[in-house]
């Protein structure tokens, strides 16, 4: 089954801004649809559903004590009216969405064919309603206004237990929300606490505030919700609802922020930036005459700017290069000197840097006395195709290891004669094949591999795996490829002493 894509998504809340008029509601849907199509974004339009006969206590009808009661009753629409609104939402190219405030309203949204359910902040601890929403089998977006962390934890646990696709929204339930009450740092809190969940921003600030949506995007929010309406004769919008024109400005502010923030992964820098940096870099020059074939020492060169075309830069300099020709004093050294094959130490250093970066990104700390082993089944030169870095944290009657795979890396088919192991994916993606059966693991998933069970795994974006096993013993592994089995341990493994090894000169052990 295809999972619902929460990222990216705009949500436009009709709420009671239809004023109890189907025609006015249809005009709002049409106007918002036109803006969304014009801006080329993906959006849902949301209605609010209440079964008023049971939602409002009989004794409260006609009472002025709660201002919402009169508002809800005076703007009521029939089930048929909501059916026409939902049909118009689809015609406008928007995703139908609804906020139910009671169980019977969940029945209604199911009958209407609404695709996504919204849980408002006031209902986020309404457990009878939430259990009914879970049973609907629909994707859910839940606001968290006014909730404690323990309540949010309980909500997340409930959705997770019922295998609900869901996202969370930072929300401040003050209407309108003053700028100094937006608490946008709570987006960081939600993303850090629930890193696997899409986080959004349900906004109630004044429509003229275009900065909040930009800050929210920069903090990682990917769903953006806003109340919408249309002024008309006798109809004045509240202070937190946007007109279609204001919605257009709001979307454009978001898109401007997205363009300024750029991608979430580290891409190659623009050529213009690299050229600008090169103009400030130092090049490597001969401090004395250098003869062809001479081993170049640090005293034989000096660093100075400007760096000329085809010249070795200071960032490419390593001691011990072999001169490719004769160099006069003050002459620039050729860039060709950097084209030599990397040493074993350089290859190991690059691998360790990437692995330590992967562990840091996954926020995984490793004990200082852990041992690092680079498993390179077909040599260090092909490590990025086949291999893994194995971090042994403890090896007693029980054993704990971390396995780090770099993007697009494979670990070939093998089995263990005596060891039983359980893998748990901590971060990234992983497909494990166990005796010919592929298993896709998500973070948190575990897989048991017993003695004599053939298994292999690979990753697309990289993976950090925890392995808990019985004692790890030398020569316990058997590979399907006889060429790997025929290699001596030192030919397919490189051990590094300690996590804090000097990465410029890693201390290797056989």
Descriptive account of the structure:
Helix content is about 30%, strand content about 25%. It is α/β, with parallel strands linked by helices. The chain is globular. Helix 1 (about 20-40) packs parallel to helix 4 (about 80-90), helix 1 runs parallel beside helix 10 and helix 9 (about 210-220) runs parallel beside helix 10. The protein contains 14 helices and 26 strands.
Q: What layout of secondary structure does this protein have?
A:
Elements: E1 9-13, H1 22-39, E2 43-49, H2 52-55, H3 67-74, H4 79-91, E3 95-100, H5 103-112, E4 116-119, H6 127-135, E5 140-143, H7 149-161, E6 166-171, H8 185-193, E7 199-202, H9 211-218, E8 223-228, E9 241-242, H10 244-261, H11 271-278, E10 283-286, E11 295-296, E12 301-304, E13 321-322, H12 344-361, E14 371-375, E15 388-395, E16 398-405, E17 410-416, E18 421-428, E19 430-434, E20 437-441, E21 446-449, E22 455-458, E23 463-470, E24 477-479, H13 482-485, H14 489-492, E25 493-496, E26 508-509
Parallel strand pairs: 1-2, 1-8, 2-3, 3-4, 4-5, 5-6, 6-7, 7-8, 8-9
Antiparallel strand pairs: 10-12, 11-13, 14-15, 14-25, 15-16, 16-23, 17-22, 17-24, 18-21, 18-23, 19-20, 19-22, 25-26
Helix pairs in contact: 1-4, 1-10, 9-10
Distance between the termini: 49 Å
What is the CATH C level class of the largest domain, in words? Alpha Beta
In total, the number of strands is 26
Reported CATH architecture of the largest domain: Alpha-Beta Barrel
Strand content: 15-25%
Number of helices: 14
Helix share, percent: 25-40%
Kindly state the mean pLDDT as a whole number?
Answer: 93
Largest sheet: 8 strands, parallel, barrel
Shape: globular
Domain count, please report it: 3
Radius of gyration: 31 Å
- Largest beta sheet: strand ordering: 1-2-3-4-5-6-7-8
What is the fourth-level CATH superfamily of the largest domain?
A: Aldolase class I
Which structural class should the secondary elements be placed in? alpha/beta
According to CATH, what is the topology of the largest domain?
TIM Barrel
Unreliable spans: none
């Amino acid at each position: 089954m295809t999972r619902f894509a929460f990222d990216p998504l705009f949500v436009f809340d009709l709420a009671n801004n239809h004023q109890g008029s189907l025609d006015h509601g249809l005009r709002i849907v049409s106007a918002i649809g036109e803006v969304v199509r014009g801006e080329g974004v993906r959006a849902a339009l949301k209605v609010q559903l209440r079964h008023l006969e049971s939602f409002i206590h009989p004794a409260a009808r006609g009472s002025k004590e709660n201002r919402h009661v009169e508002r809800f009753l005076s703007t009521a629409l029939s089930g048929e009216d909501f059916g026409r609104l939902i049909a118009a939402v689809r015609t406008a190219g928007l995703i139908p969405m609804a906020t139910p405030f009671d169980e019977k309203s969940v029945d209604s949204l199911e009958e209407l064919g609404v695709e996504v359910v919204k849980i408002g902040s006031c209902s986020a601890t309404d457990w009878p309603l939430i259990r009914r929403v879970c049973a609907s089998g629909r994707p859910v977006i839940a606001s968290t206004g006014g909730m404690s962390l323990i309540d949010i934890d309980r909500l997340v646990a409930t959705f997770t237990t019922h295998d609900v696709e869901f996202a969370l929204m930072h929300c401040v339930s003050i209407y309108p929300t003053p700028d100094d009450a937006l608490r946008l740092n709570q987006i960081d809190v939600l993303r850090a606490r629930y890193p696997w969940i899409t986080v959004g921003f349900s906004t109630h600030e004044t429509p003229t505030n275009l900065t909040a949506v930009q800050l929210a995007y920069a903090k990682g929010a990917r769903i953006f919700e806003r109340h919408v309406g249309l002024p008309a004769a006798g109809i004045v919008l509240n202070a937190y609802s946007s007109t279609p024109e204001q919605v257009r400005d709001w979307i454009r502010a978001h898109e401007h922020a997205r363009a300024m923030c750029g991608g979430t992964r580290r891409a190659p820098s623009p050529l213009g930036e690299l050229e600008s940096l090169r103009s400030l870099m130092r090049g490597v020059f001969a401090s004395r005459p250098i003869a062809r074939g001479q081993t170049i020492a640090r005293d034989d060169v000096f660093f100075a700017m400007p760096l000329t075309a085809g010249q070795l830069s200071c960032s490419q300099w390593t001691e011990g290069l072999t001169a490719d020709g004769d160099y006069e004093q003050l002459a620039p050294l050729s860039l060709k000197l950097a084209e030599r094959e990397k040493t074993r130490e350089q290859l190991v250093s690059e691998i360790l840097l990437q692995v330590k970066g992967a562990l840091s990104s996954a926020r995984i700390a490793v004990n200082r006395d852990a041992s690092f082993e680079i498993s390179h089944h077909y040599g260090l030169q092909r490590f990025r195709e086949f291999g893994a870095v194995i971090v042994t944290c403890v090896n007693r009657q029980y054993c704990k290891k971390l396995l780090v795979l770099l993007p697009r890396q494979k670990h070939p088919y093998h089995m263990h004669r005596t060891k039983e192991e359980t893998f748990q994916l901590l971060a990234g993606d992983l497909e494990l094949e166990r005796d010919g059966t592929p298993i896709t693991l998500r973070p948190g998933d575990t897989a048991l591999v017993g003695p004599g069970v053939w298994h292999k795994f690979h990753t697309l974006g990289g993976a950090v795996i925890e392995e808990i096993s019985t004692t790890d013993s030398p020569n316990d592994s058997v590979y399907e490829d006889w060429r790997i089995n025929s290699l001596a341990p030192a030919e397919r493994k490189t051990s590094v002493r300690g996590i804090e090894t000097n990465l410029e000169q890693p201390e290797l052990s056989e």
